[in-house]
Specification:
- This protein is an alpha+beta fold.
- Helices cover about 45% and strands about 20% of the residues.
Amino acid sequence: MKKDNPKIFILITSIILGMLIVSNIGTSDGSKYMQLSAKEYQDEINERSKLLTDISKLKHSNNDAIDKINEYTYGGKKDERVIEDIKEEIEYNKMVIGTNSVKGNGIQIVLKDGIDNITEEVQDNTLLLVKTLHDNDMIQVINELKLAGAQAISINNQRVLPNSEVMCGWAFLRINGVKTPGPFTVNVIGNPDILISILDRSDSYIKTLKNREISVEITRKNDMVIAGYTGELSYSNLSGK
């Protein structure tokens, strides 16, 4: 027997095992394996992380509510203290809804289309599309900021509400029914260190925008004030569409 035979046997065995593994990949009900691209896989990972964060926040909020109920029921709290707690809850909810002004430290993000360096000779619509900031891009940035713990967000002085619509209109973005032109200044109140660390991650959406050569400038801000929304509130459609 030749010396190369063991190597050939190992190679053939490896190929067979590989084919068996691939043919058996799938769910327990025998459905076919769906191959994801690198971007699709990363999107699924980001969505999973967001859902886990949301679940954690909901659990924490639920535990806080249970503790308060127990304290009110069994702790013998005085009426004055209960009223103060209710007032604090109201102010917090106003901040979340966006109807009151918020002051604190945070960051400022300036987003600008990256089409300035495209010469007139270049007539590439795909390139223009890639280097232009769209409404979906802004929605992704807002979601990323919320995931990072942003307490209040405004875009060109338009307060972002839970049901704010963000829609493209040529060179404008329509936010809360108001058309605002670029560049877009996003003011964010929250922990600057956490916000920046999230935005600087290699898998962040801000990094995706930079890779598309969209201009992104991030600056730390102290004692920033984000005004409350003064328009008419509507909760008939919380999706903002």
